[in-house]
Amino acid sequence: MSTASVLKKSKSNAAVKNKRKKRFNREAFWAYLFILPTLLGLAVFYMFPAVASFLLSFTRWDGLTAPTYVGLENVITLFQDSSFIRAIVNTLIFTAVSVPLSAAFATVIAIMLNQKIKGMVFYRTLYFLPVVTMPVAVGMVWKWLYNTDYGLINYVLGIFNLPQPSWLFDPNIALFSVILVYVWMTVGNNVILILAGLQGVSKTYYEAAEIDGASKIRQFFSITLPLITPTLFFVFITGMISSLQVFDLIFIMIGDSTALLEPLRTVVYAVYEYGFEYSQMGIASAQAFLLFIAILAITIIQFVFQKKWVHYDG
Predict the structure, then answer these.
(1) The pTM is what?
(2) SS3 for 27-77, per residue?
(3) Domain-wise residue ranges, the chain
(4) In CATH, what class is 76-307?
(5) Which residues of 102-131 are buried (b: 16+ CB within 10 A; e: fewer)?
(6) How many Cβ atoms are within 10 Å of 26's Cβ, its own excluded?
(7) With contact defined as beta carbons under 8 Å apart, do 274 and 287 qualify?
(8) pLDDT tens-digit series, residues 27-82
(9) Which family does it belong to (predicted)?
């Protein structure tokens, strides 16, 4: 090949590279332009408040005067506050009971909805309705249902001469009464997720199990349950993160009643109290970051131990 031909080929390759580079830059420009609104939204409504809250957690600030740096004093104050310790205990109980209960109910319902029965679309819609209902509306309705004097639940119990407990004002059962409402609210979403997991299990496993004479119960524990563990893991992770941050349902249930504060106060409700009722933004920010660290730690622990019980097909 002559020198002229080599130079011509080299120029041609350079022109192709320049053309590709210009096309890449043009596509990258439009890509960044399209995601710019989302980036701005994340920066303004999530990242900036998170950074500001982290910095405020080291200060004493009432929202009006200039913040005063106090180091870790807010954290020390919180761990000496019995009401905050009670809020942590309430939140942990709420999460430890509601998440497994919701997952268990959702698994049973999803298995029933995975059968070929008439009106399947209606039943699936019925179970999903609580998910699309506003928590405030749910809280108001259930507050009436739980009412000791004229609530529907105690009215029905009274017909059968059964004990009529004070669902919300008995400190021994108040938190569990709210947990039942939360489970009712979240089970529909978990049903949809687990139903999708069930429909992803290959029928060949069941056909092989039937040939081997395995019973339905054996098929459930040996095939169905192991193969939907990735979905259950997702349900546990998202459920745990949501339940640790529960606020709106608790806020509606407590209402103006100071008697319900101790048995129902959660960490996020405590953040609201300190931030917007007591105007102690520094302590409220410290609470928020302690909650963030707790959620991060529990999530990491779950990811570490998921190798012991989550089975991925193939």
Answers:
(1) 0.85
(2) HHHHHHHHHHHHHHHHHHHHHHHHHHHHHHCCEECCCCCCCEECCCHHHHH
(3) 3-57, 76-307
(4) mainly alpha
(5) bbebbbebbbebbeeeeeeeeebeebeebe
(6) 10
(7) yes
(8) 889 999 999 999 999 999 999 989 999 999 999 988 888 889 998 999 999 999 99
(9) Belongs to the binding-protein-dependent transport system permease family.
